[in-house]
Amino acid sequence: MKWAIFVAATAFMLAACHTLTPEEKAQHAEQVQTALADRHFKIGVRSAYPRRGGMINVTSDFFLEVSGDSVYSYLPFFGRAYYVPLGGGKGLHFDAKILDFIEKRVKKDITRVVFVTNSGEDTYRYTLDIYDNGQATIDVLPQERDRIRFDGELIF
Length: 156
What we know:
The chain is an alpha+beta fold. The protein is built from 2 helices and 9 strands; from the N terminus they run H-H-E-E-E-E-E-E-E-E-E.
């Protein structure tokens, strides 16, 4: 009986794990590169890595969106703030103009995007590593808060 359950569970898991064909991988990579070239992309985050402490799973509500010369940051913050306005401020919830934007292919399947922005409360340097499969990391370096990193993926 246990053997039958194990075989059924294994078969179900293998059916659920669909590997992409080379054509599907190429198509996905093309979608990623088009979004980056157009400077219109959105990264949904699933986990945060604060400077102090371990990984924190977050809800699917948090994201970072780049649209032309603007960024909309709706990210959680966990860590120490060195200087913030009375009441705590906006943290990583703001929309602002991108002051400096650099995009560079750093490996065969990774594009790095680095930009600087100012929310009115703080200046932030965002470093995004975006993989051809749509996975992404976001490293945020504020001037007045601890650094924090996020893992997520592009939302199409």
